[in-house]
What does this fold into?
Amino acid sequence: MLRRPVEAVVAAIDVAARSMVAVPFVGGILTVSHGVTAASSPADRSVVSDVSGDPNSTAETAKSDRAILGTSEREADKSRVEDVRVRMTFFDQRGFGYQSKAGPPEGPGSERLQVWQVLASVGVRQKDERFSHRIGFAADVVTAASPDALDAVSSASRWNEAFTLNATSRFAPERDRAWSLQYGAHLEEHWRTGLGGLGYERSLFEDNTVIAASVNLIYDYFDDLDPRGENDGQTQRFTLNDNLGLTQVLSPTTLLVANYGLTFQNGTLENGWNSVYVSDAPTYGCTDDPEQIPAYDCDNRRRENFPRTRIRHAVLVQINQHIPRSRTTLKALYRFYADDFGLNAHTAEGQIFQWLGSRVYARLNYRYHVQTGVDFFTTSISSLLPESEPATADSDLARFRAHEVGGKLVFYITPPHHATRGAQWVDIGYRRYQRTDGLSMNVISIGFAKEFE
Amino acid sequence: MNMGHGVAGRVLQGLATVACVGTIVGCHPMVQPMNVEADLGATDSSWPQPLRPGDPSLGTRIAGHVAVLDFWATWCEPCRETIPKVIRLADAYGPEGLVVVGVHVGRGSESATAFAEDAGIQYPLYTDEDYAFSDRFGARSVPTVLVVAPNGSIVHRSRELDAEVLAAIREQLTHVKNTDTGAADKSTPISPGGA
It folds into this structure.
């Protein structure tokens, strides 16, 4: 059946194949249905037992259902691991932003950031094959000049760790429909997150059409820090996210994906350690005392302030085109985003996947992003601005354009279509992200995956 | 039964699909009853050609036998998952008289050949580059598995090789074994085009 698009960590085999499971051929007919004759009743089986032996026997004869169908039948005698994936990614960010205190009081300050991230996931299928699970684990080790909570009290780079555990359990009562339950938690020094979600997926017209819907609730509970690094207690936010998706086969080699997402947030939406320069603040304690670090101990910065609610809309349209003759897959994506903070964004991306022989494929991609910035972005405020008024200097919420180019090579140790062994591969990728406000990022990733037959 | 070839057909198919998606209800697949008995005598060029030199023509190969046709493509992930099962099926029931063949659809015969070698496919393979053959027998998605009786009738059709397919195969093999119609079936005139 068709799958919704997933992140590249999952899309490691033939790109088109991953997303086009059932593909119609040509012809003026929408689709066809099954069988002229279905000889599958118990009576039918008993009639043929002299040819097949007992197809329901537990003995592993070469002619038994289990021997031919492998473990894909529901009578598999135990749960099993279907695949294991591991990825290590290194992010190296450079740039400056007015929300950062790692610089002169009026900004901009450094946004230097390095992250080592380890991702691991395992896919498990239960004895009852209708149930499957994917369990993921992520660990981030961050060293930052400014943007995390630690640097609200110190300008020195320090290590910070974050851990995420995420699981998706899927129940497919019928071949053409499935329910999924997502749940997980995130933990780092000052931040705790819990999430839960429910999804439903239905394939229609011989899997040529898949519709999907999901609802996710995310709860964040974190320290309410101010720019001086003082903890004002605990605060929280709720995020409710609804998604509708359509995947449609347009031709034997063409796939259309369309998604709409609506997100509602409520609570403390700002980050306490992001601050805005107060241009007319008193300078006492800021520059007269050489023992103090001006950016953190004087009153010339105020924490950013957001409205208590935010409504976000995102629409995505993607076309995948496979070219069998050259074993090439092209993907074109457009995404429009708008929210009630006044931020509008357009993103366009193109990807090329090219097989190089039978064991290697390459991916090249380019992404262009342009956004307007939120209505209350500013690089400085007056002390007369009421504290209830929203204001932010976060460069991520400013007007900018961004370009990203990247490439990835995937090497198959065991090819994806081996008759008796599951695929096994390694990949290495590089991305370069560059914004017009000067922020840039280099991302290097190495992955390994193994599927079990 | 060759329907809707060409660009116009594809466009109509797309429009019909979009319309059906929009309405969801009231859109039923248009099913053509399939029976290859007459078509086995076809002489046009729509029959697929052997993918590898030395393989017999498809009509010659399946005539008078219980046969399984696996329609697949290299770029189709479920096809790849099905192929190991088809290989085991051929190994298990080939000695019983079952004929298993693969029909690669669309272009890319060279990659299909390399694919088959990597996957260890021993059974005969054929290529249906313009989808004419698969259209003829209503196999409009991949993978599609057809079970064909010795007289050319399609007795079972499935999107995967599952227990129901195996049951249909066993039933046909038992029927051949327990009756004496095999010789008559084998006399069915077979003349696949292009063979």
About this structure: Chain B touches chain A through 79 residues (CB under 8 Å). Confidence is low (pLDDT under 50) at residues 1-35, 181-195 of chain B.
